[in-house]
């Protein structure tokens, strides 16, 4: 299990209206205001030792540049940015809307963009949003190295990662229990008599795909079932790739009798493939899909609460901006197995 | 039918690298450079007569402030903004992604936000994106008065409206043939023997909802079928409201034998209601829905090409920025009837 830390995260006396100023930081660090400004804005001309003293003062006081006073002074609308992975993936719809609703409740606009699963584009977009003076960023990361955000975070941009963890920086992260959810879903298939179970997932470099594969392996191991390499297929979620993977597993000499699909894009294609098969094949999918209950059989899924992921991340972001958080946390939300028929089919042989 | 204008829209000699400058505008209008700058930036101190002369010169020359040179000068990443209606509506997924792909092909970032169907929020968001120096805006309008964008358009922000028309300004608009699509869908039901046909749509102040209702009425009139007021229900697309509307039509003394649903959010709820009915009720939905072909019966729809709407709008936006367009157009894309079973059921009585 990933380590989950939860700490008392309110620092008394750091709420709106009573927040530390640059002057407080300067006084505590024993330096001038201009020096604090240089450190906060990542400008040159500060010795490493002085920078360390200023950073310590900033951390001790919980100072953030990005206060509402600054927003009001500049006459800007407060705004936060959301870096998505794919604008057309329905999983992100409720997540985005939840982030937007929290933003609106805080009087802030939400502006989004998509990385299209490209780490360079994620960076370009995140920095472009910062350059456009967002007060905070919610990031669904495509890459695994987020040190490029350190100067922005130092400059007071609140940052929360959601759906997948941050890489190489210490940051707030809100995830689903991808490992546990997949393990439960596969154990459910095993409980209905399956032993030859396929796993079709997204590219292994994607955290969620890797975690769900780990869950599949754990469930199989718990049941003492050796896994055949041909039962596991990771790659893009394009319909062509997924269809080929499913058809190969189903036409092998000893075909799989059940498939666990690693996300909603994979599930939709596998449902189409299974509808063409002459024998029944069990299916459990990660992520819920619309109208799953009206298909025949209904589709059993491990559902994430996509809206709760977005809401939790956004609320955490505004608490960072409020100055009421003291340390980054990793928050994991539970998944839920919803049985509708496809995951309860017995093995065909 | 809405009027559709298509004009020769390339002006020779106005492509990148050979574009009119403010100096050209000043020379043609017979005014100083500062005066042109004032008009372009919406600043005071210009008499109405002078402003008119400058505007005429701007139009004659096809001048736009927002050229790539300016972008490069400021060292910014080029970007365009997209104002959506609802982040969680799957109809907008392919549209957003298509806009993003065109933006990327032009080396520009896309940043989005959602109006949540609130005209004030649409305005706030559009202006916030302009303040963040987007080069152009694709807007799915929630409101019906877009004069607030006139200063931005004058200042060179390219602007295209998509899915719904602009209000009270002359602007590029890319729409689906909502009227024709709905008329065809309802005529299809009439062709299968239905006379008591219900229409459940979105709020009538929304252009697409009003056009689709008009298409319903036209098809009924063409067939000489008088429409009972109780067969038409317009309002929010919340599942509760839609369910109530469908159940009322189905439990009336002379119940409808078919329903035409005005968009994908309505269709999904009506599919659920119909699945609970003891008798078969025909259904044609506006907008395609995922897995519609695997439901029983398959769902017959009038499909819009959501990606083509986004692509067409974005390409038009970049041609505005290129200076290769001379006058706003209204472009209408065709819809497509996809028969899958639900729309071909005969009347139950």
From TrEMBL, chains A, B:
UniProt keyword list: DNA-binding, Transcription, Transcription regulation
SMART domains in UniProt: HTH_LACI
GO function term, MF aspect, one: DNA binding
Organism domain of life: Bacteria
Disordered, as annotated region: 1-20
InterPro entries (alphabetical): HTH_LacI, LacI/GalR-like_sensor, Lambda_DNA-bd_dom_sf, Peripla_BP_I
Statement: the UniProt record of this protein carries the keyword Transferase: no
Listed Basic and acidic residues bias regions: 1-12
Pfam family, one: LacI
Domain HTH lacI-type: start-end pairs: 20-74
The protein, known as: LacI family DNA-binding transcriptional regulator
Species this chain originates from: Streptomyces sp. 900105245
Lineage start: Bacteria, Bacillati, Actinomycetota, Actinomycetes, Kitasatosporales
């Amino acid at each position: 299990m990933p380590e989950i830390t939860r700490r008392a995260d309110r620092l008394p006396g750091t709420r709106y209206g009573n927040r530390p100023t640059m002057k407080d930081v300067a006084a505590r660090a024993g330096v001038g205001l201009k020096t604090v400004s240089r450190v906060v804005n990542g400008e040159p001309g500060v010795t490493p030792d002085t920078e360390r003293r200023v950073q310590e003062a900033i951390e001790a006081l919980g100072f953030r540049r990005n206060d509402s006073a600054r927003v009001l002074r500049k006459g800007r609308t407060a705004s936060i940015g959301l870096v998505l992975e794919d604008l057309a993936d329905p999983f992100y719809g409720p997540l985005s809307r939840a982030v937007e609703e929290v933003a609106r409740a805080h009087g802030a606009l939400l502006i989004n963009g998509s990385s299209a699963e490209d780490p360079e584009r994620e960076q370009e977009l995140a920095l472009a949003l910062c350059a456009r003076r967002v007060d905070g960023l919610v990031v669904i990361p495509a890459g695994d190295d987020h040190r490029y955000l350190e100067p922005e975070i130092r400059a007071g941009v609140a940052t929360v990662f959601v759906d997948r963890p941050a890489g190489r920086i210490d940051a707030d992260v809100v995830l689903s229990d991808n490992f546990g959810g997949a393990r439960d879903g596969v154990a459910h298939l095993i409980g209905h008599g399956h032993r030859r179970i396929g796993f079709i997932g997204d590219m292994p470099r994607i955290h969620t795909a890797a975690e769900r594969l780990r869950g599949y392996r754990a469930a199989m191991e718990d049941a003492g079932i050796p896994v055949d390499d041909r039962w596991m297929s990771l790659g893009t979620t394009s319909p062509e790739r997924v269809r080929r993977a499913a058809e190969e597993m189903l036409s092998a000499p000893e075909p799989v009798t059940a498939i666990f699909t690693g996300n909603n894009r994979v599930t939709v294609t596998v449902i189409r493939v299974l509808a063409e098969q002459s024998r029944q094949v069990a299916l459990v999918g990660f992520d819920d899909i619309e109208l799953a209950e009206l298909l025949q059989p209904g589709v059993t899924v491990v559902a994430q609460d996509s809206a709760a992921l977005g809401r939790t991340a956004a609320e955490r972001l505004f608490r960072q901006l409020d100055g009421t958080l003291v340390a980054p946390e990793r928050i994991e939300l539970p998944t839920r197995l919803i049985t509708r028929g496809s995951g309860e089919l017995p093995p065909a042989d």
